[in-house]
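Retro notes - structure team

What went well: the batch runner handled both jobs without manual restarts.
What didn't: labels got mixed up in the shared folder, which is why I'm recording both outputs here explicitly, each with its sequence directly above its tokens.

Job 1
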Amino acid sequence: MSFPHHQTRCALLAACIFTAFALARPSYAQEDAQLDQQIQAIAQAHHGKVALYAHNLRTGQTASLSPDLPVKTASVIKLGILLDAAEQIRAGKATLAERLVLTRPNQVEGSGVLGELTPPIALTLGDTLTLMVILSDNTATNMAIDRLGLDHINATLRAAGLRQTVLYKKVYVPAQGPMPPDQPLFGLGKTTPREMASIMERFATCHLALDNSAALPGDGPICGAILHMLRSQQDRDSLPRYLESEDTSEHGSAIANKTGALDAVRNDVALISTKAGPVVIAAFTFDNADQRWTGDNAAEQALGRLAQAIVTRWSPGGLDADAFPWENPLLPATSHAAPTPAAASSQP
């Protein structure tokens, strides 16, 4: 990606300031025992199981329930695909503007729209990832996996220090080759709440360098493009359920999230911009008694109550969409530039 000279210097300065801030933060996390009790009470009232990890990115406080328990990802594993896409874009191996072609063999059932359209259809990688996120489009997901490479995605997850997070296969496609013995148990993917939260935290802080090196000048727009996708995600029935009530498609949401669902599973991972600072929540429910695919599914209501309890505890004043620099997390919220998501497409 090309920048005018002064913009490059500003971006580098912002990256240095951010890195210094990140290094100055406490290396320990302070568990919020009172909030843990609230989370436990909500989980006990739910007819199913709950695992959760929440992190207040401003104060360092955490709250959790079985945060290191391996769980089925369902579609939240698509956050891992986004992370690998970001790594390949910043390495010059991919661009959001490059063209992919939808073919009939990649069309699968389930969520999304591409499976219902007539191929061949040309899409950019950016459009494909957007559909994968905002509609959880399974066909778009398979196109992205083909382009990025299943092995490369999993190598990126390992390089990010995620030992329990795996994408086993494409969606609605049988697993290929030798599989770990736990694959039949977890299906599409496996993770833990803490590990999946760490992926969202990388986008929130724009810490894309897996070797912990300094941010590149183009990292901010890459993160901005990804957060734009997540902020436009259209399933609002879980963590956002009791936090936002207006039409966020017109005014911009304070929540960037990715959901995942199976008959007995409802998951949601979110970055929430509150008046007291950004909060990341990774919440997983499983073995749920209510297996209805309706908006009032009991697990989705439980996820909503969990998010409401966390935000009320850590930010009594509620949400503030403008308090977070969505377009470029490396810049201050009050003065960030507004590049379009496509601005990251040529970033090496």
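Job 2
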Amino acid sequence: MLETYKKVISELSLKDGAFRAILDCFARKVFILPSFNDGENVFKCVGDCIFEIILDDAKVWKKCIDAIVNLVKEGAFEVDKDGIRLMAMDPSQISMLSFTMQKSAFSKYEVSEKAKIGLNMENFGKVMGRMRVKEKMVLKYDGKGKLDVTFIADKNTREFKLPLIDVAPGPSKALQIDYTATVKLKGSVMKEILKDAALVSPHVLLVADQGRFKVEATGDSADVDLEFQGGEVDVQLKKTTSAVFSREYLDDITRGCDEDGDVTLHLGAPTQTDPRPKPLKVEYKLGDGAFTFFLAPRIETD
């Protein structure tokens, strides 16, 4: 019967597009809903696959979701022919993240139309926590309001369904800032810096100077002064730049990075036209997943 449907569909002319769509939906065993667009009857297949994506190593996606959950509780992934993207702000709107994974990262990437997938990230993180070593992950969405997350290993298959949620519109594009200093260091070094600072203060002063990177934290019980020159850090400088940031948010931002991976910090100095401190930009990768974070500076008030 299916082959008969396909034969009929292939012989229809373009003017029979509506009937072609109906038969095509029947052939794929999906429902048909009529809708109207400028007076024309348009048929849409509901229950058909909008996208099916396979990542051979589910562990990579788990690490990406863990990094997102550290900062964002809800968010909407945009899935299109080029890849998967997410832009969101933390609940306090002090920080923002941008995540991308290009289609080349996946062993299968089939997207019939652009989709926005709003999810509770904490729940997504819990599902990814059930991932096992050497499992593949399949993400599938058919337009019915739930994201199918399937883990596959040998002949074993485990499927979870996450309900989609409405997510408030977030930022549409990353900030465009002329940064005056760039500091590159390993994730392990950054994490140790924040552990030292956590002993005394919820805030840190970051300073990029000629050939060196300094971190200072001041508290009621103690002070911490850290300085790095060459070796563990690489500093690219237009001018000496410094600003104070939340140590707790920096910890949330960098907690998910690989210890042996690179973390890049971008600092921006005030200008004559804009004397305010600039947001910190933090970049790192997890496998083929690319992260960019922005963190607002702490501004002293009288």
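One thing worth noting from job 2: The chain has a mean pLDDT of 86.
We'll revisit the folder naming next retro.
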